[in-house]
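Wed. Picked up where I left off yesterday with DNA-(apurinic or apyrimidinic site) endonuclease. The coffee machine is broken again, so keeping this brief.
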Amino acid sequence: MVRALKNAAFRYKPEIIFLSETKKKKRYLEKIKMKMKMDESFYVEPVGIAGGLALWWTNNVNVDVLNAGKSFIDAKISFQEEEEYYMTFIYGPPYVDEKQQFWSSLSSLRTSNSEKWCIIGDLNIVAKPEEKQGGLPFDASQAK
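Structure written out below (tokens, as returned):
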């Protein structure tokens, strides 16, 4: 997996990399970040062996992390001289009992702000049965 990430970074030369469900501590991820030639970082540590988020960026990007939780990193971002906008990097909770709180937190991030906003990541929501493979059966009440 690290080799594939390194190859993609070499080929596409991204200025921001977001990893979700890393299941790894900061110390391990910092070694990989250096291989990716990223300059800065922000981490949400995993809980046990679950979760974990990593956000890496180069010095060509200005990233101001505004808020973070176990399922998201919310930041204000600008590239060089371009205008600022907001990005929320997400790994939505896989457990039904955590989803309502997650959606409430997410919706409150931008309620008082009309700036540009981009959400990136995995919301862990299945909208229709065709998207689902394996595991528990499709639950239409969770697709709302």
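Quick read: The chain has three helices and seven strands.
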